Amino acid sequence: xxxxxxxxxxxxxxxxxxxxxxxxxxxxxxxxxxxxxxxxxxxxxxxxxxxxxxxxxxxxxxxxxxxxxxxxxxxxxxxxxxxxxxxxxxxxxxxxxxxxxxxxxxxxxxxxxxxxxxxxxxxxxxxxxxxxxxxxxxxxxxxx
Length: 144
Fold this sequence. Notes:
This protein is mostly helical and 144 residues long. The protein has one domain (12-121). It has six helices and four strands; from the N terminus they run βααβαββααα. A two-stranded antiparallel ribbon has the order 1-2. It has a two-stranded antiparallel ribbon with strand order 3-4. The radius of gyration is 18 Å and the shape is globular.
């Protein structure tokens, strides 16, 4: 998807998880789902926002190595645009777990009869709760 970034950093990026999800889907059956994942963008500086300018700069300097880069994929695919760029190398400590991605994955599985049967056949206590990685504290614009 061609874009123009007049600023020195990108504002909204295609996250690694969303790119990989779009890549994993079958282009013949799931074209709408592919574009859904492909068009979902996140803030690149989602972990360094705040209301005070010098505080944001300080957090950016401290955490720059974990922010990742926006790069083209190593092996382009036929069902995604050839000039796609996505966020790569972002530290899991910075990013945390995106629960929306897991929610979408679970909702999409509702249409797959095989996965529904497997879930129904599993014993009630088979699903173990996992610890959620919330990532670094994110600040919204105007938040103190």
